[in-house]
Amino acid sequence: MSGGFWGRWGKHAGRGAALLGLLSFTFGVAARANAPGVELDTGTQRLSLGGQWAYLTDASRRLTLEDVRQIDRSGSFQAASGATASLGAGEVAYWLRLRLTNQGALSNQWILEFPYTLLGAIDVYLVYPDGRVSEQHGGGRRPFNHRGLPHRTPNFLLPIAADQTVELYVRLETAGIVFAEATLWRPAAFHEYAENEQMAVGLLLGLLAAFCLYALANALVARDRGYLYCALWVMSLALSGMALYGVSAQYLWPEHPELNEVAVPLFAGVAGLVFVALAREALQIDHAKPLLNLIGRGLLLAFALEIVLVSVSTVAAGNLSLLLLPAAIVYMMVAAALRVREGMSSANWFQLASFALLVGNFLLLAMLLGFWPIHAVAAAGPVLGSAVGALLIAVGLADHGRRSLLQRLAQLRREKESIEEEIRQRATDLRETIESLESANRGLRKSNLVDPLTGIRNRRYFDERLEAEWDRALRGENWLAVILLDLDHFKRINDTFGHPAGDACLVSAAHAISDVIRRSGDRVTRFGGEEFAIVLPATDPFGAARIGESLRKTIAELEVSANGSWLRLTTSVGVAALRPKLGLRSEMLVELADQALYRAKQQGRNRMCVAAENFTPEAEVIEFPVLREAKDAAG
Questions:
Q1: What is the DSSP string of 11-27?
Q2: Contact present, 227 and 218 (Cβ < 8 Å)
Q3: Lowest mean pLDDT among 121-135, 317-331, 387-401
Q4: pLDDT tens digit sequence for 451-471
Q5: Are strands 93-102 and 38-40 parallel, antiparallel or unpaired?
Q6: φ, ψ dihedrals at 151, nearest 5°
Q7: Which residues contact 584 (CB under 8 A, 6 or more apart)?
């Protein structure tokens, strides 16, 4: 994916990155491409073709095979010297030419392999002596099934009969650096190589997966973000490496090769981002080193921009990651060195890890720039360096965790001894304090259940008593009643005569109610404000109604002295009674009484209303929805 300014920038950046490689290659170019071809015999099992090619640059990318053969006859091809042919970078095409002679070899089938998996488009043409042309098409931009054999690298089958000489033309086109490195295999040797490589790749991926699980487990158990970053870093490196070395194209998206060009810079950017976060976390840079902290934040921002840049130009993002990844490694190396000087012994491991990573990436960068021949070790440099680096970082995290744990244990040991000494000194005082607190708690609990103004029990006591009596009535299948009383027009009393007069009315009403309620099991409480509540165990609706009416009359006969005047009080009464059953709640009884009280107020106050089952005295019976729900639940 490329276009606009970023596409042009990526193209020029790629060309600039390969300039030194092109210069070193140019000085080794022969004047004409008349170098002898490659001879194959029975002893040939594997042959590197990197320095055997003659090449032609096709800047227009429009030359056909016939055009190229015509140019070849004019002697315009150039020959490469050395073991590697690094042709440069940019959106141009290159034609390679090589003469192959099969000198009586037993096999007439050969395999041409290009180890660089990201070569965009590869077109292979085999021209036989009789003029017949065999062509094949493959490369990183084409589906996996275009390859001669199912292998991670692009490969092509070359049928060459014994004692036959053919002309091999290869067209290479890609947006990045172009390598003309290729290997010619005999089938048996290639299959053996592929099997060994497949085993090595599987083992490596298995080790990476095991390492990620190990790091994640440590992150969860130790709650250490360093292990989490380490696991994410290795995971991102594995995904980037799988795309870079063709494993993803073979197993993950064989029908969508374009994803490879996105996956490499994307996961490389994520790996760099997490790596910087890992360095900051493991080396505790946030507060220790302000300058390093600022540089680290800048690198985090740069990697984030590189990840975003992938959506604009994969070439530009890839080139940017080639610059940022070494910078991140150097950042960890410098930070680790400074932390070692400050006495952080575990930082030595991070120094070694950053050195291993730097060497691995240097090998690949040197190969990409043409300073190092294409070799399996150089190509796998980042993978090997990352594997060693990840192992050393894990050891560093473990060492740091061990040292932190030992320090913490020593501190805890000192704290434990200090606490034990303090406990021994205060043991006697503590026992006396506990006894004092228990005594105070009993008194406090008793006072917490009494209303300070009226001297009767309060709402908290009512709730506890109601719950206890509900359970007792449920077990004995007895009646349970609740009476709610609300002094009428109490706000008018406060507003007219003042709050002291209102308090006197509350105290007088509480005493009058307590005089009426004589049974030991009945409990009078101040429910809140000017409202009182009474719990009546083993009391049916008729008994509760009689008590409620008696209370109403008693309050109506009450006279209270206030500011030289005598005040007459009235009250509205709500009565509720039922037999508790499974499925009902004690709150239902309070809700019924409250609704009966509300009805009494609606009908003019100074009256009583009852909500109960099968009750028909002179007082009004209220059949509210709550009561119907109670019946349904009980029935």
A1: HHHHHHHTHHHHHHHHT
A2: yes
A3: 387-401
A4: 889 888 999 999 999 999 999
A5: parallel
A6: -135, 155
A7: 578, 630, 633, 634
